[in-house]
Design a protein that fits this description.
alpha/beta; eight-stranded mixed sheet; six-stranded mixed sheet; about 30% helix
């Protein structure tokens, strides 16, 4: 049954048309009420024969025999109409802003879909469970491994499966917004030592590497997705990545086919000899091989590099997200069943979310985020000077990257950053301030990452002009919050230092002071477990990072 069309209310979320029948306890799809019709309909019934015709071929026998057996036992069959339509309640989000929703597309054949999913034991790199009450971070990895039919035209023929496309997906605690941060595969970074679980259950540590391409964090030397997770955490200054989801080239083909194509737009015609993409300028609908060619193309966009390809991939994902949220997908049980089947086969996840029931929870949380508040952006990078005149790789732009990770770590929406700025300004600590050069401060590490006191001291002295400062190492204690303690006469110094550090008013503690190395009274800054790094404000960035962004509701033409 597909009720998409002009007759239903445009202001009704398709998911809200699935309602619980109080007589059966099952969920059923209801058309939007017409004028004068009651909003809550009564129970409906459908002959078993009609339902049997809707069940795909190989599943009919199970539906007939299993259903009768259950009815004889006094149980409701698990493959009936209402159960099949419950798929909608589990869809609406996306992995890579799409795969998650497709993967949780059906409760029908739960065990079958569960068996489709491949899981990886990340040896502690990811969480053992999923929480619906907290903000969460999922690393979405697209590999260049060839295993699908027709994939031989793409990627490295000898690839063990590297991290070709990488998106850190952050979903806010209140589910009002999400951020999809792309990490370039050609980023030069450090890959840490990585414990990997072997087939016999033992652990093997793959040695890390310094100054290598990010994409080698997966596949190289036997590194698994947990290694890529650890690499991102290190890159992000210790930010916790809760889970990962991974798919290969074939996922793009199967998912776009399952949703009956994705709408894209081209600013100019493209006939790319390498990817074999051949499309005219203007709008187009793509699926299967053509969709894969679209996201793999790099020499026909912008400066013919990976960064411009990332922009096009983000536009594609925004369109795919909109298609997943559309009536034509959400109100078609048959299409959702196809989506569930194809997505689960394409998916590899960590054990913490390695079941349909858990992926259902992920999808329900993703569904709550409106497309206008899903922000796509790319990690700020610049050309690697070590490459010489021919640019092949990139390195991180430290300051804007810190701001980006700070916003994600502080659960700050990129779509609402101006409102957050106004709120921070309104809450700014009132009172006169000293000049940076007049601030005397002694720093301690009281639970922050190792080396934080020294790096913060160097940052204050060289970048902020707080030259009358020193650090005294670890306190030997662990405190959850960063605290700035000061004597009454030092209030102006404390206010200035709080502004420079991005400390909230709650971090300031009137009290005593200490004598610095010059024998003069100084404020005392103890860096707690909430400290994320020098120059990373605890209250979020002082201003939005100067990086290009766009949201999932925006339609752009690839150029």
């Amino acid at each position: 049954m597909d009720i998409s069309g002009p007759d239903h209310g445009d202001d009704i979320d398709p998911a809200d048309r699935w309602v619980r029948n109080p007589h059966t306890g099952e969920y059923e799809l209801r058309p939007a009420p017409s004028a004068g019709e009651p909003a809550v309909p009564g129970p409906r019934s459908t002959p078993d024969a009609a339902e049997e015709r809707r069940v795909p071929g190989p599943r009919r026998a199970a539906g007939r025999d299993g259903g009768r057996a259950q009815r004889r036992a006094g149980k409701r069959p698990t493959g009936g109409k209402s159960t099949g339509k419950r798929i909608l309640l589990w869809t609406g989000g996306t992995l890579a802003l799409v795969v998650a929703a497709g993967a949780v597309g059906g409760y029908v054949y739960l065990r079958h879909l569960d068996s489709n999913i491949t899981t990886t034991d990340t040896a502690g790199a990811t969480s053992d469970s999923f929480s619906r009450d907290k903000a969460f971070n999922i690393l979405v990895i697209g590999t260049d491994k060839r295993q699908g039919k027709g994939d031989s035209g793409y990627g490295d023929a000898n690839s063990v499966g590297h991290a070709d496309t990488n998106i850190l997906l952050h979903v806010s605690q209140d589910r009002t917004n999400a951020t999809a941060l792309s990490i370039p595969r050609d980023l030069i970074t450090d890959v840490p030592d990585c414990p990997t679980r072997q087939p016999d259950g033992s652990l093997k540590t793959v040695p890390g590497a310094r100054g290598v391409r990010f994409n080698t964090s997966l596949g190289q030397l036997g590194r698994d997705p947990g290694c890529t997770v650890r690499t991102v955490e290190r890159l992000a200054g210790g930010m916790r990545i809760d889970h990962f989801m991974m798919a290969d080239f074939n996922a793009v083909k199967t998912l776009t086919t399952a949703v009956d194509g994705v709408d894209v737009c081209l600013a100019h015609p493209v006939k790319d000899e390498k990817s074999h993409l051949d499309l005219p300028a203007g709008p187009a609908k793509i699926e299967g091989e053509q969709a894969l060619a679209f996201v793999r193309t790099r020499y026909s966009w912008g400066n013919r590099g990976d960064l411009d390809r990332i922009k096009v991939q983000q536009q594609f994902l925004g369109s795919l997200f909109r298609k997943m949220k559309s009536d034509s997908t959400l109100t078609s049980p048959g299409r959702l069943l196809d989506l569930a089947e194809t997505a689960t086969k394409a998916l590899t996840v960590d054990k913490g979310i390695g079941h349909i029931t858990t992926l259902k929870d992920v999808a329900l949380e993703l569904k709550k985020v409106p497309p206008k508040n899903i922000t796509f952006l790319t990690l700020p990078v610049r050309d690697n000077p070590a490459d010489g005149p021919v640019h092949k790789t990139v390195v991180v732009q430290e300051e804007p990257a810190r701001q980006v990770f700070s916003m994600i770590g502080n659960d700050t929406s990129f779509t609402e950053v101006k409102q957050k700025q106004k709120a921070r300004e309104a809450a700014r600590i009132k009172g006169p301030r000293s000049a940076p050069g007049d601030v005397r401060v002694v720093l301690y590490n009281a639970g922050a990452p190792a080396g934080s006191a020294q790096t913060t001291l160097a940052w204050l002295q060289t970048e902020k002009g707080v030259t009358k400062s020193g650090q005294r190492g670890n306190t030997g204690t662990h405190q959850p919050k960063t605290i700035l303690e000061y004597a009454p006469a030092q209030a102006g110094q404390a206010r200035e230092l709080a502004d420079l550090m991005g400390l909230p008013a709650s971090a300031l503690k009137p009290g005593g002071s200490e004598t610095d190395d010059q024998g003069l009274p100084a404020v005392v800054l103890r860096l707690g477990a909430d400290f994320r790094g020098a120059g990373v404000p605890l209250t979020g960035p002082a201003e939005p990072p100067a990086v290009p962004t766009h949201t999932a509701d925006q339609v752009k033409c690839a150029s």
